[in-house]
Design a protein that fits this description.
This protein is mostly helical. The protein has helices at residues 3-6, 31-35, 75-79, 85-93, 106-129, 139-153, 157-161, 165-184, 188-192, 195-200, 265-270. The chain binds iron/sulfur cluster.
Amino acid sequence: MSLLSEHKNPIHVSDKNFEKLRADCAHCFGLCCVALYFAASEGFPVDKEAGRPCPNLRSDFKCVVHDTLDQNGFKGCLAYDCLGAGPKTAQLTFAGISWNEKPENAKEMFAVYHVLQQLHEMLWYLTEALTLKPAQSLYPQLSILREETEQYSLEQPQVLLSFDIEAQRNKVKELLHEASKLVRAQCKSVERLGQKQKKTLGRGGDFIGADLRKLDLKGADLRGSYLIAADLRGCDFWGADLIGADLRDANLEDADLSECLFLTQRQINAAKGNSKTKLPLHLFSPVSWR
Ligand code: SF4
């Protein structure tokens, strides 16, 4: 039996909770276009400081160059995904009153958005961990932590701004790592990796521009790896942990990421792929890949 056929069992089950963590620009106040900074080195044509509206943002919070972001050098905007933090800040925390309607609230609103972005990222990962069949023993702890994180995200601005986000992140990180280990332990090919490959594929590895097509990536620990412009065509990521991996311009054509762990829409939007690239059920194929 080939290694590929051994690992075609699904890891994830579907979960409707991802739907609560989707961007919804129609119910936002262009918060990502104002509150965040841009850096010319990170997919933007110019630098922009946090809190200053992008010159392309109209007063109705629509983008003047929405249909031509790529051609205008705003690749960073195409990749960005607030995971639903924008509409929550706008409609729930600030009850639908925008920063240009009430400029005295602007600074606080932008700061809250930063906090909610981070809480929603935690919620996204916890939601995914709760879909991982091999991590079922952790479901009770994961559920409690997701509920707690969700409750914090509904708090008033003052509470959100005094919240110890780092402590919460560490709790989440620890549990996600446990879940990842349980999944990756199921991957027989990891046991078969030579010492050299195990070492090479460790967390935070530098694979910028590398051709990884010959490596067995199933069950690999690629957390925080630099995969910028890496050649990953046709690779099988069954059970590979990609949390925080930098996939900007990585070539994922024909790759199978359907059962990888902790991949986000932001990572996918920044990478290259094609109609044959397989993604997890909770992520979408970018229009340019179809
Ligand atoms: S270019 Fe458009 S999408 Fe990007 S930050 Fe500016 S207004 Fe927002």
